[in-house]
Every structure is written in structure tokens, then in C-alpha cells.
Design goal:
The structure holds two protein chains of two kinds. In chain A, 56% of the residues lie in helices and 18% in strands. Chain A is of the alpha+beta class. In chain A, the strands form two sheets. In chain A, strands 2-4-5-7-6 form a five-stranded mixed β-sheet. In chain A, 29% of the residues are buried. Helices cover 45% and strands 20% of the residues of chain B. Chain B has a five-stranded parallel β-sheet, sandwiched between helices. Chain B is an alpha/beta fold. In chain B, strand 3, helix 3 and strand 4 form a beta-alpha-beta unit. The chains are: A alpha+beta, B alpha/beta. Chains A and B meet through helix 1 and helix 2 of A and helix 1 of B.
Chain lengths: 226, 123
């Protein structure tokens, strides 16, 4: 990317981060207001406030949705801050988990379940010095490749591991899928695959199809040269 | 804890006034300041037993108010409220002498627990 494009991305991130902060304040006000309603109901006799149980159930639903909103705004805030620096040190597992939460809606529209594979407790965290935003782009492009060939009811599992000394992200598709050769052909002929190749090249890494499992393997260097 | 004098400082009026009402329902005496400058005036005029302080406020920010409290009235415990997804401001505040910090939106039971811990930790 050239300098102006870098600045565009940074600007977009700055504005988004500011808005997520505001959204958190909105959620905080809703939480306190619904909490106050709950407090008042719990100290009022049933005779004074009718349908107490229904109101309490409604407050519980509001609370659950606030939790959902907080989780999303937290992730969006971190995502927005990923544009702060052109190159930064990132935890690949954390970045993947973050993207999986932010991409849930896209998966839901395809009726596909998106999951991260928990890291091996013994293994040290995989950290990279790289372009954070482009790592997000590469992960998302790999999901879009999978969406191209997957049917409703499928599942995508994303795991991080060291593969022959390289930092690899393994994206595995499960469910009703074309046979391996068709799966590979359909993905490699898609526009999303071309996009993924370009992004991987920008990151001085690579993206290839897994010839055994239905999946994609992305690999990235420990540190990209400037 | 009953009748504990507590000062809530936050520029989000709807948030802070509702939180004050909820604390009052639990028997605490909650006062509200909508900015850092107002908070300092209240502290000087009628010292609270604990301050709940938002970090990000226009004008005098939460960390500046915290520095002032720790310089002028170090006996007052301060619990910070941070709005960001990161813990950076909270940790910075603790280095400056805050008792602890909570992320917004807060859980009132968690806040009350922290208030209790802060009061009990007082010499």
C-alpha cells in the first residue's frame, strides 16, 4: 500500500474506534436503566406492578443482548485499533479469534458455523511482526473461499500451528462438500482465491489448498521485511 | 457500607445518574459530578469516602483528577471506569494509585464488591 492508502486505513480505524467507545457508553446507559427497572420491580409488591415476571424476563433478554453488544464492540474496537500502526506485533491466535467473532454474521448468512480450534496449552503463542489489517483480510478471504463451496449446515474450523517452522493458519471445511478435486478446483477458480493470493503475497506469505483435508493453509513469516 | 458517601464522576449524565439511583436503592449516599472540575469542587467541599471515576472525560480527564486526589486527599480510594476494549488506562491508573478499575458497561454487583474491598482495605 502507498502512504495515502495507509493513511486512509488509519483514518477509518480511528473513526471506528471512536464510535465503538460511544457505543459502549450507549450500552452502559441501557444496562443501568434496565438494571434500575429490575431493582424497582424486585422491591415492589406484585400488587403494585403487574406482570412482574414478564417484565423480569424482558430485562434478562435486554441484559443478554447488552452482553452480546459489548462483546462485539470490544472486538470491533480492537479491530479498529489494528490500523494504528502499519506494522505491529500480533498474536495470531488472538487475531484469528477476533476475526471469527466479527465474521459470525457472514457465516450465519451462509448457514455455516465458524469456530476456532483452541491452541495447544503447551505451545508458546505464535506472534508475528506484520501488517495487522492485512492478516485480517487474508483470514477473511480464506473464509470467503470456503463459503463459495460450502452448503448450509457446514462448519469451518480455524486452527493455528507451526508447520515446518512457518506460522500456519489451517482453515478446514466440514459438512456436505464436493469431492476433494472439485473442492480444490472450485476454490482455485474463484475470484476470492485470487484476492487471497494477492493478500498473502503482500504479507510475504502464501496460501495453498490442503490436498488431504478440505481446507486452506495460510502461512506467514515471523517478521515481514519493510 | 450503609450511608457510605460515594462520588460518581462521569460525563455521561444518563449513565451516571441512573447508576447513582441504583446505588441509593442499596443504601449508599451517591453524589454525581459530570466533569473533573466539578468533582474537585465536591471533594474539597464535602469529602466523599470513595470516588468512582471515569477515565475518558472532556476537560480535566480522569487520570488528572486521580493525580489531584492522590496529592491532596490520598486517603480517598478511587475506582476507575474505563470505556475502551483495552486495559491500558486502568493499569496506568493503578500505577497512579487507583484501588482498581472496571470496564464499562459495569456490573453493579461487581462495583459494590469493589467498593467494599476498597473500604475494607483502608487503614
Amino acid at each position: 500500500m502507498n502512504k495515502c492508502e495507509d493513511k486512509e486505513v488509519a483514518f477509518f480505524g480511528k473513526i471506528t474506534a471512536g464510535i465503538t467507545h460511544e457505543l459502549k457508553n450507549v450500552l452502559a446507559i441501557i444496562r443501568e436503566s434496565s438494571g434500575l427497572m429490575g431493582d424497582i420491580i424486585s422491591i415492589s409488591p406484585e400488587a403494585i406492578i403487574k406482570h412482574q415476571e414478564k417484565i423480569q424476563n424482558s430485562i434478562v433478554r435486554i441484559k443478554d443482548q447488552i452482553e452480546r453488544g459489548v462483546n462485539l464492540t470490544d472486538r470491533l474496537n480492537r479491530f479498529a485499533h489494528s490500523t494504528d500502526e502499519t506494522l505491529s506485533k500480533i498474536d495470531l491466535q488472538e487475531t484469528t479469534e477476533q476475526l471469527v467473532i466479527l465474521a459470525q454474521r457472514f457465516a450465519r448468512l451462509k448457514h455455516v458455523v465458524l469456530k476456532t480450534v483452541p491452541p495447544d496449552q503447551e505451545a508458546p503463542p505464535v506472534t508475528l511482526v506484520t501488517r495487522h489489517v492485512q492478516i485480517h483480510m487474508a483470514l477473511f478471504a480464506s473464509l470467503e473461499c470456503c463459503f463459495t463451496v460450502m452448503s448450509a449446515g457446514g462448519e469451518i474450523n480455524i486452527g493455528i500451528r507451526k508447520l515446518e517452522g512457518k506460522n500456519a493458519v489451517h482453515v478446514v471445511c466440514k459438512g456436505e462438500l464436493p469431492v476433494q478435486t472439485e473442492f480444490s478446483r472450485d476454490i482455485s477458480e474463484s475470484k476470492n482465491w485470487q484476492d487471497l493470493q494477492e493478500i498473502a503475497a503482500c504479507l510475504q506469505g502464501s496460501a495453498h489448498l490442503d490436498e488431504i483435508e478440505h481446507g486452506i493453509v495460510l502461512s506467514f513469516p515471523n517478521e515481514i521485511s519493510r | 457500607m450503609k450511608n457510605l458517601k460515594i462520588l460518581l464522576v462521569d460525563d455521561e449524565e444518563e449513565f451516571v445518574t441512573t447508576l447513582a439511583e441504583r446505588l441509593e436503592l442499596r443504601g449508599l449516599q451517591a453524589r454525581v459530578a459530570l466533569n473533573g472540575e466539578a468533582a474537585l469542587q465536591i471533594i474539597e467541599a464535602d469529602t466523599p469516602e470513595i470516588v468512582i471515576l471515569d477515565v475518558l472525560m472532556p476537560g480535566l480527564g480522569g487520570l488528572e483528577v486521580l493525580r489531584w486526589i492522590k496529592a491532596q486527599q490520598p486517603q480517598i480510594p478511587v475506582i476507575l471506569l474505563t470505556g475502551r476494549g483495552s486495559t491500558k488506562e486502568g493499569i496506568k491508573g493503578m500505577e497512579l494509585g487507583a484501588f482498581d478499575y472496571l470496564m464499562k458497561p459495569i456490573n453493579i454487583e461487581e462495583l459494590i464488591k469493589k467498593i467494599q474491598e476498597a473500604i475494607e482495605s483502608q487503614p
